[in-house]
Write a structure and sequence with these properties.
Low-confidence stretches: 5-21
Mean pLDDT: 94
Largest sheet: 6 strands, parallel
Shape: globular
Number of domains: 4
CATH class of the largest domain: Alpha Beta
Strand content: 5-15%
Distance between the termini: 78 Å
Strand order of the largest sheet: 10-7-11-12-14-13
Helix content: 40-55%
CATH topology of the largest domain: Rossmann fold
Length: about 900
């Protein structure tokens, strides 16, 4: 029989305090404790909390000097942060707001119910909004200031799963029709018919979640997938400060609110930027965490306390934490003689048990919660069941929620998180409320509908419930009048997105001239070329201030250190030290009005910063053009979800995948060498992807991208840039269109072969892109010189753009039933379709990249690429290994001619 392992003996106090040591019921010297507490209360009363804080700090220091370890107190008691006597007066009509919530709750729920009743499995979420309704409604009625044509307003990141509640509110305002609510999650086609001829024909249905691309006049921010809203909100708050510090826009009065769920905080992106927000003192930022204690499958921390855990994380990161845990029904108990024991009991109970209380009868609660200690049992002995039922969680009490908002808005120097305790599926009925499966509940049965209707006190008859109708009190009703009055005071309806016209012009044409003239004998990489053009743009008086370079701690790698001194690196506090290279030309200069955003080693943070700048044209009305430079391997592969979010939010900007290509980045090996980001980028419909070979291509693409963005095209340009230096030629005449559309003739066979050879020799086409184009040009010469084979050399700047156009033309030909000479001819066919011989395409990417155009060149295209994992070696050896060097190109060309 195995002996039990004895518990460790604690020989000295090590700073850890367990629940028993904290227990007020096991105080070894309550008289001494009372004296200390009375003294502390007297100090606060006589000299204020600052003096008490000072004395406690001195005591803490004294204990440390004496070698006494103390617990790291980042958790406060499990009660509300704002005491009752500090609660502000509530500014609204509580009865009217309750009535509005009842109506909105009903419409939000039946919207999902009706959708799934008519179209089984179409989805939607009942419980998230049900738990967070009070948090939203107090904000809508008294906190959130709408953007206008002239002001930024408050920026609100709505929790994605709560979208039905926002639609239900907009329905009361008259901004959405009943037909649109009826078409929740059905937006592929315009609404063709409505009930009884009601308005809505021609409108689109409602998107599942906040999607600005799908509802561009309604949603401002995309917040699904989960975790992306919080990190975007942090960097949006920081960009507001950046713009204000640089004099680009007055964002001083704009506040950023971000709603998220407690389960969502397990997403790395949700919490990764907390330290940045605190470090930069972003007191314009408020997180509201809907702590309903449940994630999709069950409790978030059934065996622990997610609210206390989050408090530790946020407090440790330097945030102001406001806990809204208990409703007004608990106030008298928390001010009574057993308050200490009650606080202790709050702290003891784990979240899984708190959820059990919600679904249990009051006898169970009296016995299991209050019955543990005599003091608590006596507290509720004379309380009726009705009184107990009124003891809600804080997130369902308007007075407590409003107090939480005010505590957040009056904080200076720190961001704030409101941790609001709620019940998932609140008020939806016992079959849904707080159940582990509540996330999967999409509709009600008839008895549940009746109970829900009755609980909300709505005048809907039993006969009408079979149809589960939407409820509107009327445009002239007191409820709608009150709702509109509240929103008018705050600037207008929300959520709303304003399409603002950009006030920005292209720079003078002369700026571009020197970048297409070639480098002479000097050698530069395409990365160097892009950085040079960007610096010229930043100096331009027309557009310079709107250029926002962003780096992920690799500025020197990409040759951007020359920007440090003249443009400065943005810092909220300026530069409080003298840099070690202060006397040098490229000194590391930080400044409050710095233009460069140096984000440190965080691709997710850098992309979030880029997103904030890329959507500034809509959010603030001041267009910025962001340029995010990064190792291409750590772009789409790492933050592709955020780039998809950016596309949803109609972002405009440049992504620069530097050190691109699986063999061009020599020595770094498997985890760094990128041979596939262009393929991932091609999956995003808002991204246009290019691999320039020469500086003039970089110039043409950058200029064209700026023109498109300034003219209002919501497009993201992804350019892969390489670090291999070589001489840059002058731009040939007439290649602009081909550079943009995807392919152009670089060097004809006529330029390297004599006329007699051309009459008799085999002919083929060679396609190159990026640095590999240099090897393709060498292969062309070897084929002529050593094998009497003539080849034309083309540069393919974008296989994905060629493919997209070809697919579009094929689709139009099919739909429009075009035939013969009326057929639309894709550019790839126009350029290569009538050329002679096989086509060999070689790139530093996987073969799937050039293979994108194979269907339109049937039987002719053979691709060479870098399929597989990268290796550490020289460029020459890597290209030999992957068979994309000159030798491989020549051998493949001869083989294709032979077969």
């Amino acid at each position: 029989m195995t002996a039990a392992i004895p518990a460790p003996v604690r020989t000295q106090f090590d700073g850890r305090i367990d629940a028993g040591q904290w227990s007020v019921r096991h105080d070894p010297d309550p008289v001494e404790t009372r004296e200390w507490l009375d003294s502390l209360a007297a100090i606060i009363g006589d000299s204020g909390p600052e003096r008490a804080h000072f004395l406690l700090r001195r005591l803490h220091e004294s204990l440390q000097v004496d070698g006494v370890s103390l617990p790291y107190l980042v958790q406060s008691p499990y009660v509300n942060t704002v005491p009752v006597d500090k609660q502000p007066a509530y500014p609204g009509d509580l009865a009217m707001e309750k009535r509005l919530r009842q109506i909105i709750r009903w419409n939000a729920a039946v919207m999902v119910h009706r959708a799934n009743k008519h179209f089984e499995g179409i989805g939607g979420h009942l419980s998230t909004y049900a738990s967070a309704a009070m948090l939203y409604e107090v904000g809508f009625n008294h906190i959130f200031r709408a953007p206008t044509a002239d002001t930024v307003g408050d920026l609100v990141y709505f929790q994605g799963h709560a979208s039905p509640g926002m639609y239900a509110r907009a329905f009361l305002e008259g901004r959405l029709s009943e037909a649109q609510l009826e078409h929740f999650r059905r937006e592929a086609f315009p609404i063709s018919t409505t009930r009884n001829g009601a308005p809505g024909v021609g409108q689109r249905g409602l998107s599942s979640y906040p999607h600005p691309r799908l509802m561009p006049e309604f949603w401002q921010f995309s917040t699904v997938s989960m975790g992306l809203g919080p990190i975007a909100a942090v960097y949006q708050a920081r960009l507001n400060r950046y713009m204000h510090a640089r004099g680009l826009a007055d964002t001083s009065q704009s506040r950023i609110f971000c709603f998220l769920g407690d389960g969502e905080t397990d997403e790395p992106e949700a919490l990764t930027a907390l330290s940045l927000a605190a470090r930069e003192g972003l007191d314009n930022l408020v997180f509201i965490v809907n702590c309903n204690l449940q994630r999709l499958d069950g409790p978030v921390r059934g065996n622990g306390k997610i609210i206390q855990e989050l408090e530790s994380i946020f407090s440790g990161a330097g945030w102001n934490v406001v806990k809204v845990l208990w409703g007004s029904g608990w106030d008298s108990l928390l001010d009574g003689p057993a308050a200490g024991v009650l606080r202790q009991r709050f702290a003891e109970v784990v979240d899984g048990e708190y959820q059990k209380y919600v679904i249990s009868d009051l006898a169970y609660i009296r016995d299991e919660f209050f019955g543990k200690y005599p003091e608590l049992r006596d507290l509720v002995a004379n309380m009726s069941d009705r009184e107990l039922k009124r003891m809600h969680r804080g997130g369902h009490d308007p007075l407590k929620v409003y107090a939480g908002y005010q505590a957040a808005l009056t904080m200076r120097g720190k961001p704030t998180v409101i941790l609001a305790k709620t019940v998932k599926g609140y008020a939806l009925g016992e079959g849904i409320e707080a159940r582990n499966a509540t996330h999967q509940q999409k509709k009600f049965d008839i008895e549940e509908l009746k109970a829900f209707r009755s609980a909300l006190e709505l005048s809907i008859t039993d006969d009408e419930l079979d149809d589960a109708p939407f409820f509107h009190p009327g445009a002239d009703s007191p409820e709608v009048a009150y709702l509109n009055e509240c929103r008018t005071k705050l600037g207008g309806s929300m959520p709303v997105r304003i399409e603002r016209k950009t006030q920005i012009s292209m720079p003078d044409a002369k700026l571009w001239e020197r970048f297409v003239a070639g480098s002479g004998k000097g050698e530069v990489s395409t990365t160097n070329a892009f950085v040079g053009i960007l610096q010229a743009l930043m100096r331009d008086p027309t557009i310079g201030k709107q250029m926002v370079p962003i780096v992920c701690d690799e500025a020197r790698t990409f040759g951007m250190e020359a920007m440090f001194k003249p443009f400065g690196i943005y810092s909220a506090v300026g530069q409080l030290y003298t840099p070690v290279d202060a006397e040098y030309l490229m000194a590391y200069r930080e400044a409050k009005d710095g233009q460069l955003l140096q984000e440190g080693i965080t691709e997710a943070g850098s992309l979030a910063s880029w997103l904030a700048a890329a959507t500034s044209w809509s959010v603030s009305g001041k267009m910025l053009v962001p340029f995010y430079f990064y190792y291409s391997m750590f772009g789409f592969q790492r933050v592709g979800d955020q780039i998809w979010q950016a596309a949803d939010m109609n972002a405009r900007g440049f992504l620069l995948g530097c050190t691109a290509g699986r063999t061009t980045l020599q020595g770094e090996g498997l985890q760094h060498q990128d041979g596939h980001s262009v393929l991932i980028a091609a999956c995003n419909p808002a991204v246009v992807t290019y691999e320039p070979t020469y500086a003039y291509e970089v110039s043409v693409l950058l200029k064209r991208g700026l023109e498109r963005m300034i003219s209002g095209d919501n497009v993201i340009y992804y350019l892969t840039l390489q670090n291999q230096p070589y001489a840059m030629p002058k731009m040939p005449d007439g290649v602009d269109e081909g550079i943009e559309r995807g392919v152009y003739l670089l060097r004809s066979a006529l330029e390297v072969a004599d006329a007699e050879l051309l009459k008799t020799s085999p002919r083929l086409q060679l396609l190159g892109s990026g640095c590999i184009t240099l090897d393709v040009l060498k292969a062309q010469q070897i084929l002529v010189r050593d094998h009497n084979v003539a080849a034309d050399v083309w540069v393919a700047t974008s296989y994905s753009e060629l493919r997209r156009e070809a697919i579009e033309f094929d689709t139009r030909n099919r739909r429009e039933k075009r035939m013969g000479s009326d057929l639309l001819v894709p550019y790839v066919v126009e350029m290569l379709g009538d050329t002679d011989g096989p086509i060999v395409a070689c790139s530093d990417w996987m073969r799937a990249w050039p293979d994108m155009i194979a269907p339109w060149l049937p039987g002719r295209l053979t691709s060479l690429g870098t399929d597989g994992f990268g290796l550490s070696d020289t460029r020459e050896n890597l290209r030999r290994h992957f068979e994309i060097d000159v030798q491989a190109i020549v051998e493949t060309a001869l083989w294709k001619l032979a077969v």
